[in-house]
Amino acid sequence: MPVLTDVPDPTCPDDGVVLAVGATGLCRSDWHAWQGREPVSLPHIPGHELAGTVAEVGPAVRRWRVGDRVTVPFVCGCGVCEYCRSGDPQVCPQQTQPGFTGPGSFAERVVLHAADVNLVALPDSVDFVTAASLGCRFATAFRAVHAHGRVGAGDWLSVYGCGGVGLSAVLIGSALGARVIAVDVSASALARARELGAVAVVDTSREHDPVAAVQTITDGGAHVSIDALGSADLAAASVRGLRRRGRHVQVGLLHGAESAPPLPMDLVIARELEIYGSHGMAAHEYPAMLALVVDRTLRPERLVGRVIALADAGAALATMDRPSSPGMTVIELPH
Ligand SMILES: [Zn+2]
Ligand SMILES: [Zn+2]
What we know:
The protein is of the alpha/beta class. It has helices spanning 28-34, 82-85, 115-118, 128-148, 164-175, 187-195, 210-218, 232-240, 265-270, 286-294, 313-318, and strands at residues 17-26, 49-57, 69-71, 109-112, 120-121, 156-160, 179-184, 200-203, 222-227, 242-250, 274-277, 304-308, 328-332. Helix 8 links the parallel strand 9 (222-227) and strand 10 (242-250). The chain binds zinc ion (ZN) (2 copies).
């Protein structure tokens, strides 16, 4: 079991900051790491969806001051490689990820590297709990729906898997005017998806052919489809359920036996389908998303379920393989 304990305060890197954590989300990726599916060095501090106040600033940092309220993408770019320089730090080969490549934010203090590239200023109206809920699942879903999926008003968007990232995609898609179909095995997850804007649902505990169901509802297939869970079957179903010229976005992480889905590449040719992977979102794309949060087009706080204390984080992490209370769990720290 993960335990709460005292460790030495982190040292501030020259190009980074030490952040006083205000809130940090509990994500299934943290659970995967705890299960040994992500390489982390032990002992380890999880946590990669975070927001807080800058407490210490390295001498090479230009843009940030002690006291600034910020959040950060879960993928931090190095800031100097060709990918970072062309605006794609989310795929930086030297990327750092708090909670994976180093100690994370289930802590009072966390180090963030290359602060000038990676930190995002928080508008005053966005509190730390809401901001932490944006960090990984919401931002990844936003990039999947908006940048990769390019959904337009009236488009059909099918979302396979209604956990944190799937429900984020449902909320974002419907806020952007898409007609969203939620696909899941859980009736309560589907009910939540309807509350967040889904106009139709497919319950795979009763409907054995979700692809046919999606094609019937959409009269020919979805314009955009997302596997938000990370399953070989759902990834393949998502591609099969697309309309001609449709776009599949793989958001759910694929591990082990699930890592190589049998995708119907014949349909990819015949229907001219597009397939994308979505791996977080660059800091420079956050202001556009935050503007939609500030003007209330997007209401990510609707996805937050429980707010817990740091002392309860270990137990909450350990139960992430079981169905829990709906919505994202966010850890709030005194600030
Ligand atoms: Zn880089
Ligand atoms: Zn995450």
